[in-house]
């Protein structure tokens, strides 16, 4: 009890009583203030706008450490350079025109996978477009698998990683030249566990990529762009959202409905899971381009995506 | 310092002018004075080799062209808006004065690469993706500075003449066994013929001699693989970097045999020390890293020749810098002991390019899109600049600092304070020491 109104009462019960009284008073003041403010702002909506503009909450996200790879016109000295440099050199490996080469995905698991991996594969078959699952057999090297996929015109290879009967990781490899992304998978919630979930249709979903800002983040965004066809069936009203927050990528799938001109309804289709980028490698798992290390977690306000 | 950096994303060459202490990842730190792109092309024409010869620059691109540029320094023009004004009303130009290089294309030679040779090789290779042809080396010949020797991954050895510093002319192309990861010219001693070493994936180190008229290329020596390991498995071969040392001293040598000494690092993390007098197998073959993790480059530390060979014949006392494919730039001694790591906790991507310059600096660039300059001895970082693209090759043009004009301090006191230590003479210092000693003795006496 320090500050302006020190309470010097030695009886603990009395002290508590008094403190409760002061607190109650403060709460009441606050509530009346809020009520009044709401009333004023209802009459004059500009005030609310002004208040919200002035009082911005400090969050970990908006206090993030400066990262020069975030394309920002203010911090670039030569304005003309932005356009040229923004184009990523990984871009040329990815499918640029989906009309000519629609994504064709090869899905498999780690060697000696258990039930959890196959269940997750079933889920991914529903999510990913134009996908073919092949049971992983022992005795093939990665290079041989990639060769076989190339001959059959696959554009991407996805490998589910299962450890101790839990799905722990997901590898995305773009064929034939890479790059390779390895994500950690966590917080997997299956469809049946989601209350009020809907049943997905086979329409091509729309894709929402949220908050991929840095150069590395944009590369990850490009990966998802290249995996999903860019001509969604709007009549299916299905959306896949990949929301990046503090380097965790949240996967959600919804169906939307326009109830009237203002209201929109959302129905979750599931599943839910969270991905975290652990490694980005050039080629098919060759030189490391970026790797997450434990000491990167030291700084709570530094984000890489 | 002035750096030329080749960026792979658009095949450009960036000129960076910066002072020590530059760090672009921190907003408040010193920023580079200028970062300017030259010769922008596309990602397929990225620059793999750079060579600066006085006022010309030779550039080898991955589309198989070699270009000659004339470089000219032009004073940097300051944009008028940036002029800072002082409180007294008069505006003083406080912008540092420095030059910027302009490049003028003089001549090109085309079609020097051949991808077809590498097709069968990339099927056998342990690399999982297709290997594309690139230049692995470009150097001036030690006895004729107007002749360039270029080696490609596909095993083509091109000899190119620079005529009157204006024209490039292809004289001769030789073929050696592909694939190549390096081709290192021997320039420790003066001789008429040119000897160079090459090697690559499943391609043991070979020494070849190029005749004086560049018409003949003869193999003079070939290494032999080490004995099988303790499980009787063959040790895989893949030298990725080689540097020569001076030849052995004259009193012990056998004149029938060749006299070369060189150091090799391999993709399977070996450090091999070879003496041609000793035999075809290495004198020492040390594992530098556990689990045979790949090593990519080799740079020697000490007094170096123009092509990077060490000017010393002592194989028991040298140190080297090498990189792996993850994020480490390491300095080892000849026994294979790790001495220092450069850019620990700072580099996040594979350090593709490392070079020691003037026995003072280590230049590093790679997949994490930063160019870094380190102090060689202390491994302290001198500069770190973001270049927006992955970096392939770096050239240090000069290491002079650009003077940054500063405002004259207004108060006389501050000036006085600054001058005080300068006025201090040796006498004063001695007096101070005497005084301190007196104090000490008096304390002891009290006890």
UniProtKB/TrEMBL annotation, chain A:
Residues 103-286 form the Brix domain. GO terms for cellular component: nucleolus; preribosome, large subunit precursor. PROSITE patterns: BRIX. Signal peptide: none annotated. This is Similar to Saccharomyces cerevisiae YHR088W RPF1 Nucleolar protein involved in the assembly and export of the large ribosomal subunit. It comes from Maudiozyma saulgeensis. One of its GO terms (biological process) is maturation of 5.8S rRNA. InterPro entries: Brix, IMP4/RPF1. Residues 1-47 are annotated as: Disordered. Residues 1-11 have a biased composition (Polar residues). Residues 28-37 have a biased composition (Basic residues). Gene3D superfamilies: Probable brix-domain ribosomal biogenesis protein. Residues 14-27, 38-47 have a biased composition (Basic and acidic residues). One of its GO terms (molecular function) is rRNA primary transcript binding.
Automatic annotation (TrEMBL), chain B:
Residues 406-447 are annotated as: Disordered. The keyword Transport does not apply. The keyword Aminoacyl-tRNA synthetase does not apply. GO terms for cellular component: nucleolus; preribosome, large subunit precursor. CDD domains: Nsa1 (cd22858). GO terms for biological process: ribosomal large subunit biogenesis; rRNA processing. Keywords: Ribosome biogenesis. InterPro entries: WD40_repeat_dom_sf (IPR036322), WDR74/Nsa1 (IPR037379). It is found in: Nucleus, Nucleolus. Involved in the biogenesis of the 60S ribosomal subunit. Belongs to the NSA1 family. This is Ribosome biogenesis protein NSA1. It comes from Maudiozyma saulgeensis. The lineage of its organism: Eukaryota, Fungi, Dikarya, Ascomycota, Saccharomycotina.
